């Protein structure tokens, strides 16, 4: 029941627009790039889906992933701060643990929605390319659905660490822009550390990039950076749960 | 202190502070009887909101001393909160949503019947604008929506922090009539805070006055009025009210000290003469020395002034 109210809170909010715009933009830019290089794609006479997917997931992970995840998490959690609603929420007959779990589930749902829409636009753009340029072969080949979902799932996991960090910061820092600023700093450091992958694996902001640039395709179910991101998520979620239920007073 | 079976709110020697050196509440013993409209009065920073936050479990009491509906708050938080409707400071409203959506959120959490949304909207006269986004509402409409949220679950106890703060006179009258109706027709116990007695004087049955974290008066409004009937003040204007104020403060509780007017409570006419002599001896010219009875607001101000001495 509480989860339904969390969904209602994002109605008329910029969060949904941000998610739709960001997920629409990356496949669109990849599509435009394919149109620009249409002759090369047609000349290769090969299955265009793997290349189309590789470019799209790279664009998504670099340009959309960390920043949009940080922004949506911060904006969603900021709803309570902005309208001074924490104190009201905590005076309703609810266990604080229930409030925490529902907030976290909603943050995870927003992350998942980002992927659902991205994949939807990706397939749609592929089909449209196939219709507009039949010689490219989009309609003559089947996309590797399993492989696409597998890699998407791995990057989803690789982003969990970032989500946990900013989820915690979001109820502790009232000013959303400070939280986003911390995220941007993290992303900048990740870009600087990118060439030093060995050390960078322990820096959560780089985990998504590592999945698509270095660990692609995966040899195991999860790469080292994804397992590390999952551990960061579980550890920080546990800490923030106790912080919220024992110490947070709105 | 013996626990009264009729008490809806009871605190026994409640102490609270964010640091040990600066206690915000000192031995606060409140008692709010069933069916009362209890006005919790005090100047800004006296500890009213802190008390309300403690009553609602938003702040942790250092030792279990709060009892609501006869049960300890620390041990029965959820069942107690399910019987309370509250409004703390400014109403917490999601301004990007409509008034109806705001009510739906609380209604869903409180698991009340769907028709209750329309009932409370009608009660606070917001039915016609329920579909509009809250950011388009006036201050008074937001305050009424805040009250509607508090009323959704048909609570036994309503806790309102400064419910008429920022409202225009019409809004104050509307809120007053609504609260009186809830109290009379539904038997709702109401605990409301204010820093102005005049704003709530016409609706409260009981009064508690807090200053610097200490409860300095608690009783019925009649008891407060009785004190008022026995009290008088002398209004003074001199050639230098600042010096006069400082001089009088040494011997008398100065109720009001402003640049253009001083007010000093007195018990007999000899005291008035003594005040005049004191001012003359200090070389001050007296332009006004008027004796008058106090209204109830002055009684409240005087309580605070005496406590500040």
From TrEMBL, chain A:
<feature type="transmembrane region" description="Helical">
    <location>
        <begin position="12"/>
        <end position="30"/>
    </location>
</feature>
<keyword id="KW-0812">Transmembrane</keyword>
<feature type="transmembrane region" description="Helical">
    <location>
        <begin position="176"/>
        <end position="194"/>
    </location>
</feature>
<feature type="transmembrane region" description="Helical">
    <location>
        <begin position="227"/>
        <end position="244"/>
    </location>
</feature>
<feature type="transmembrane region" description="Helical">
    <location>
        <begin position="56"/>
        <end position="79"/>
    </location>
</feature>
<feature type="transmembrane region" description="Helical">
    <location>
        <begin position="145"/>
        <end position="169"/>
    </location>
</feature>
<protein>
    <submittedName>
        <fullName>ABC transporter permease subunit</fullName>
    </submittedName>
</protein>
<feature type="transmembrane region" description="Helical">
    <location>
        <begin position="100"/>
        <end position="133"/>
    </location>
</feature>
<keyword id="KW-0472">Membrane</keyword>
<dbReference type="Pfam" id="PF12730">
    <property type="entry name" value="ABC2_membrane_4"/>
</dbReference>
<keyword id="KW-1133">Transmembrane helix</keyword>
Automatic annotation (TrEMBL), chain B:
<dbReference type="InterPro" id="IPR027417">
    <property type="entry name" value="P-loop_NTPase"/>
</dbReference>
<keyword id="KW-0547">Nucleotide-binding</keyword>
<comment type="similarity">
    <text>Belongs to the ABC transporter superfamily.</text>
</comment>
<protein>
    <submittedName>
        <fullName>ATP-binding cassette domain-containing protein</fullName>
    </submittedName>
</protein>
<feature type="domain" description="ABC transporter">
    <location>
        <begin position="9"/>
        <end position="237"/>
    </location>
</feature>
<dbReference type="Pfam" id="PF00005">
    <property type="entry name" value="ABC_tran"/>
</dbReference>
<dbReference type="InterPro" id="IPR003439">
    <property type="entry name" value="ABC_transporter-like_ATP-bd"/>
</dbReference>
<dbReference type="GO" id="GO:0016887">
    <property type="term" value="F:ATP hydrolysis activity"/>
</dbReference>
<dbReference type="InterPro" id="IPR003593">
    <property type="entry name" value="AAA+_ATPase"/>
</dbReference>
<dbReference type="GO" id="GO:0005524">
    <property type="term" value="F:ATP binding"/>
</dbReference>
<keyword id="KW-0813">Transport</keyword>
<keyword id="KW-0067">ATP-binding</keyword>
């Amino acid at each position: 029941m509480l989860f339904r109210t969390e969904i209602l809170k994002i109605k008329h909010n910029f969060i949904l627009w941000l998610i739709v715009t960001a997920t629409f933009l990356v496949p669109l830019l990849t599509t435009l790039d394919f149109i620009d290089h249409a002759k090369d794609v047609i000349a290769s006479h090969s299955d265009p889906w793997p290349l189309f997917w590789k470019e799209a997931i790279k664009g998504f992970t670099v340009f959309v992933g960390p920043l949009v995840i940080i922004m949506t998490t911060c904006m969603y959690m900021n709803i309570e701060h902005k309208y001074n609603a924490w104190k009201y929420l905590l005076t309703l007959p609810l266990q604080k643990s229930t409030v925490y779990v529902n907030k976290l589930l909603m943050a995870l749902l927003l992350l998942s929605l980002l992927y659902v829409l991205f994949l939807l636009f990706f397939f749609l753009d592929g089909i449209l390319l196939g219709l507009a340029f039949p010689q490219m072969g989009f309609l003559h080949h089947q996309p590797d659905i399993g492989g696409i979902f597998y890699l998407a799932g791995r990057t989803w996991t690789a982003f969990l660490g970032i989500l946990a960090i900013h989820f915690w910061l979001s109820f502790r820092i009232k000013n959303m822009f400070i939280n986003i600023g911390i995220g941007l700093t993290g992303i900048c450091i990740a870009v600087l550390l990118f060439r030093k992958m060995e050390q960078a694996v322990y820096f959560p902001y780089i985990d998504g990039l590592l999945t698509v640039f270095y660990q692609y395709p995966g040899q195991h179910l999860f790469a080292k950076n994804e397992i590390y991101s999952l551990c960061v998520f579980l550890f920080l979620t546990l800490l923030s749960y106790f912080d919220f239920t024992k110490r947070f007073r709105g | 202190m013996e626990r009264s079976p009729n008490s809806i709110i009871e605190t026994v020697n409640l102490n609270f502070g964010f640091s040990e050196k600066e206690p915000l509440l000192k031995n606060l013993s409140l008692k709010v009887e069933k069916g009362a409209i209890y006005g919790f009065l005090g100047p800004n920073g006296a500890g009213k909101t802190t008390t309300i936050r403690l009553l609602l479990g938003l702040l942790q009491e250092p030792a279990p001393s709060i009892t609501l509906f006869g049960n300890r708050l620390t041990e029965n938080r959820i069942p107690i909160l399910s019987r309370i409707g509250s409004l703390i400071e400014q109403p917490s409203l999601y301004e990007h949503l409509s008034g109806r959506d705001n009510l739906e959120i609380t209604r869903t959490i409180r698991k009340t019947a769907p028709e209750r949304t329309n009932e409370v909207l009608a009660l606070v006269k917001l039915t016609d604008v329920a579909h509009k986004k809250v950011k388009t509402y006036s201050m008074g409409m937001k305050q009424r929506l805040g009250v509607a949220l508090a009323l959704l679950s048909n609570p036994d106890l309503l806790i309102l922090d400064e419910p008429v703060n920022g409202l225009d006179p019409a809004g104050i009258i509307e809120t007053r009539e609504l609260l009186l109706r809830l109290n009379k027709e539904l038997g709702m116990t109401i605990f409301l805070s204010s820093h102005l007695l005049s704003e709530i004087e016409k609706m409260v049955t009981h009064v508690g006055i807090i200053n610097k974290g200490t409860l300095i008066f608690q009783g019925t409004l009649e008891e407060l009025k009785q004190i008022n009937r026995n009290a008088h003040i002398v209004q003074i204007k001199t050639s230098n009210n600042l010096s006069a104020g400082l001089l009088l403060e040494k011997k008398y509780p100065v109720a009001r000290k402003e640049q253009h007017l001083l007010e000093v409570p007195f018990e007999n006419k000899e005291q008035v003469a003594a005040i005049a002599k004191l001012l003359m001896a200090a070389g001050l010219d007296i332009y006004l020395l008027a004796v008058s009875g106090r209204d109830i607001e002055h009684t409240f101000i005087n309580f605070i002034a005496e406590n500040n001495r």
